[in-house]
Automatic annotation (TrEMBL):
<keyword id="KW-0560">Oxidoreductase</keyword>
<dbReference type="InterPro" id="IPR009075">
    <property type="entry name" value="AcylCo_DH/oxidase_C"/>
</dbReference>
<dbReference type="InterPro" id="IPR009100">
    <property type="entry name" value="AcylCoA_DH/oxidase_NM_dom_sf"/>
</dbReference>
<dbReference type="InterPro" id="IPR052161">
    <property type="entry name" value="Mycobact_Acyl-CoA_DH"/>
</dbReference>
<dbReference type="InterPro" id="IPR036250">
    <property type="entry name" value="AcylCo_DH-like_C"/>
</dbReference>
<dbReference type="Pfam" id="PF02771">
    <property type="entry name" value="Acyl-CoA_dh_N"/>
</dbReference>
<dbReference type="InterPro" id="IPR013786">
    <property type="entry name" value="AcylCoA_DH/ox_N"/>
</dbReference>
<dbReference type="Pfam" id="PF02770">
    <property type="entry name" value="Acyl-CoA_dh_M"/>
</dbReference>
<feature type="domain" description="Acyl-CoA oxidase/dehydrogenase middle">
    <location>
        <begin position="132"/>
        <end position="226"/>
    </location>
</feature>
<feature type="domain" description="Acyl-CoA dehydrogenase/oxidase N-terminal">
    <location>
        <begin position="60"/>
        <end position="128"/>
    </location>
</feature>
<dbReference type="GO" id="GO:0016627">
    <property type="term" value="F:oxidoreductase activity, acting on the CH-CH group of donors"/>
</dbReference>
<dbReference type="GO" id="GO:0005886">
    <property type="term" value="C:plasma membrane"/>
</dbReference>
<dbReference type="InterPro" id="IPR037069">
    <property type="entry name" value="AcylCoA_DH/ox_N_sf"/>
</dbReference>
<comment type="similarity">
    <text>Belongs to the acyl-CoA dehydrogenase family.</text>
</comment>
<dbReference type="InterPro" id="IPR046373">
    <property type="entry name" value="Acyl-CoA_Oxase/DH_mid-dom_sf"/>
</dbReference>
<keyword id="KW-0274">FAD</keyword>
<dbReference type="InterPro" id="IPR006091">
    <property type="entry name" value="Acyl-CoA_Oxase/DH_mid-dom"/>
</dbReference>
Length: 397
């Protein structure tokens, strides 16, 4: 997320003013249908969420650090952090186009041609293009160097064949950030390429997967002789590995900064909801030690995020340190989700609407949280990165 020079791009608002602006916008625009602390039936439609996300950009909540030339607001990571605090403290829905804004966008700015930047980046912020990420494969998972999807140069362009798995949002996306191999699987880090593939290209077959919470966001995507022209290649033919690892360091460290404060808001909702009824308050009191540990986890996670922001403002690279907040958040949040699920599972059958809303939210957090130690790199991958690249440990004999 270092694609804007904080000292030269745009005028920086006074400290705290961007948070106030964000808070006011959320209060004026977040409807009951969109709130994650309500269990309305029906809730918001996909189109309502897309429209809400497009409005967020106009309101200054997204594209904060992107250069103005590409549709952004040209501010710094400090304003990005201020906005994310307010987003996290509110019951806003998760972004529909997080892959586009948090992964594809930074990569296009880092390695894309000028014509690609001017064409693709504004469409991401305007929600004209929703993106998915074609990295993981059935036989490789988080080991990106083991992927086997091939890109072969032909007279018509690059012919792509292979399969991707856990491709979140592929069925509603217009573009795929695809990592493919031009060489042999044994080459590992060499010969990897990145493409911005139009999802309506002939030969792409998207199959939705129903996840444990009943959603159909996860997909597997098959590429059968899909032709991708050179205009949709991002960077040079051998730049894929460096670009992909840069993407993942961004994803693990600074994307979705709001998570720390969303975690806090979830704890607060659980505590305040249970305190509203003597019966549920008695249940809550049995988890005092666990709740205290959760609040400690939140403060530690905030510290990780704020330290990274300070380093970014000082022009420092994040590198493998991005694994720390990703690892800590996913493990701590799963512990909270387990505790919260246990608590709400003991709610009386005649609970009021507010407690039913709370129960529905915590059940959803528990179910979706099962994947948090897998996506953006598994816990095992994060530990391996920390051991090898930070602690410099040698492999056991």
């Amino acid at each position: 997320m270092t694609h804007v020079d904080p000292k030269t791009e745009g005028a920086t608002p006074a400290a705290g003013s961007y948070a106030a602006k964000t808070r006011a916008w959320i209060q004026a625009n977040l409807t009951d249908e969109l709130r994650t602390d309500r269990c309305l039936d029906p809730g918001a439609t996909l189109q309502q969420k897309i429209d809400f996300e497009a409005a967020q950009h106009i309101g200054g909540l997204t594209g904060i650090m992107w250069p103005k030339d590409y549709g952004g607001h040209g501010l710094t990571v400090r304003e990005h952090l201020e906005a994310n605090r307010e987003i996290g403290l509110s019951p806003m829905p998760n972004a529909v186009n997080s892959i586009g804004k948090e992964l594809a966008g930074p990569i296009i700015m880092a390695v894309g041609r000028e014509d690609q930047k001017r064409d693709l980046l504004p469409k991401i912020l305007k929600m004209e293009h929703i993106w998915c990420q074609g990295f993981s494969e059935p036989g490789a998972g988080s080991d990106l160097a083991g992927l086997r999807t091939r890109a072969e140069k032909t007279a018509d362009g690059w012919k792509v064949n292979g399969q991707k798995i856990w491709t979140s949002g592929a069925s509603k996306s217009q573009r795929c950030l695809l990592l493919a191999r031009s060489g042999k699987p044994e080459d590992r880090h060499k010969g990897l390429m990145l493409f911005a593939v139009p999802m309506d290209s002939p030969g792409i077959d998207v199959r939705e997967i129903t996840s444990i919470d009943g959603a159909r966001s996860f997909c597997e995507v098959f590429f059968n002789d899909v032709i991708v022209d050179d205009a949709n290649m991002l960077g040079s033919p051998d730049e894929g590995w460096a670009a992909a690892t840069r993407v993942l360091s961004i994803e693990r460290a600074t994307n979705r900064m709001y998570r720390s404060w969303r975690f806090q808001s979830e704890i607060d909702h659980l505590v305040m909801g249970c305190q509203s009824d003597n019966r549920t308050y008695k249940i809550l009191r049995g988890y005092r030690r666990e709740l205290a540990q959760c609040r400690i986890d939140v403060e530690l996670l905030k510290g990780h995020v704020e330290a990274l922001v300070d380093d970014l403002l000082d022009g420092k690279e994040i590198g493998p340190r991005g694994s720390f907040p990703k690892l800590f958040w996913s493990e701590a949040h799963q512990r909270f989700a387990q505790m919260a699920y246990e608590i709400v599972s003991r709610f009386p059958a005649d609970s009021n609407q507010a407690l039913r809303d709370l129960k529905a939210r915590m059940e959803h957090i528990y179910l979706t949280g099962r994947a948090e130690t897998i996506y953006a790199g598994t816990t095992e991958i994060q530990l391996d990165i920390i051991a090898k690249r930070i602690l410099k440990l040698k492999k056991a004999a």
